[in-house]
């Protein structure tokens, strides 16, 4: 997972070329969700043009960004002309077009904030973790260019949740074969877990990573009280150790916020707007 965080840094540098501004502010929203689940991150950059407050035109541009490994990351840029841009990072086995990502993008657009949502390359290669959330937290622990970070339903202890997906004997099987194919109810292979990706997950210490996050980085953790994938205790652990942190529990929400999309979007947008307003009046 740390490898993913380093690759993500290269991806953001490439993204800055497409957004035409070296001084735009970046924020992250990350998501732990599979399929219909999502997390967030924020980024600030300055645009060369502006938009009308009365009649904003939201341009959606398909962007393809090459990685240093020869992969092509495909994303959608929602351009409002704002100085800020929010990067939406989906969860494991999810993608940029699922409900949570689309709804968050729409809510931010409505407030005049530009958004970029993209598909992680090789999504599914790392065992069932809350990919978006963990990647951006790891990123923030290594780099100091993140100003706002929103962690939606991220997993704190990456040693948990593996046996439930791969079986109690997962370690013996993966040591023997080098991989495990995870199948659906009809017997079809949904994704393959390699020994390399599993070992990287098991080596990743989110506690140590979170202790390294810059105290100037404002972090919001959102978690559903009825999350059936990742227990609410994980959110409480993040709240204990991240220095500049706010915790919001969405009562009754499951992992995908199926019946709580509006509340999730409201909490995230209000947090980002509040931080941006505080920055405007803060002494430079």
TrEMBL record:
GO cellular component: cytosol
Alphabetical list of InterPro entries matching this protein: AB_hydrolase_fold, Peptidase_S9_cat
Residue stretches making up the Peptidase S9 prolyl oligopeptidase catalytic domain: 123-276
Annotated Pfam families: Peptidase_S9 (PF00326)
Protein name: Alpha/beta-Hydrolases superfamily protein
